[in-house]
């Protein structure tokens, strides 16, 4: 699946390493211009505290994660078993 573009500077990505996926419940990261700015839990969809997104961006992020939640959870679970070891 790779990264999902939300808008011109925000993307959704899932951890690729097995150990990262085994440590926490399914989630994805929101990046802005390549830097992680938020973590979003997938079930239920909710954004962590302490992020650096504005209200408009939060709405876009929640909508995009909700729309792609099934695929994101599948990728997360796949990476939990078959992800990179590096």
From TrEMBL:
One Pfam entry name: DUF4160
Protein name in UniProt: DUF4160 domain-containing protein
């Amino acid at each position: 699946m790779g990264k999902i573009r939300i808008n011109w500077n925000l993307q959704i990505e899932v951890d690729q390493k097995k150990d990262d996926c085994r440590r926490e419940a399914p989630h994805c990261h929101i990046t802005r211009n390549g830097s992680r700015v938020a973590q979003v839990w997938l079930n239920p969809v909710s954004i962590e505290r302490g992020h650096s997104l504005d209200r408009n961006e939060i709405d876009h992020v929640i909508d995009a994660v909700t729309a792609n939640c099934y695929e994101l959870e599948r990728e997360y679970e796949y990476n939990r078993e078959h992800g990179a070891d590096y």
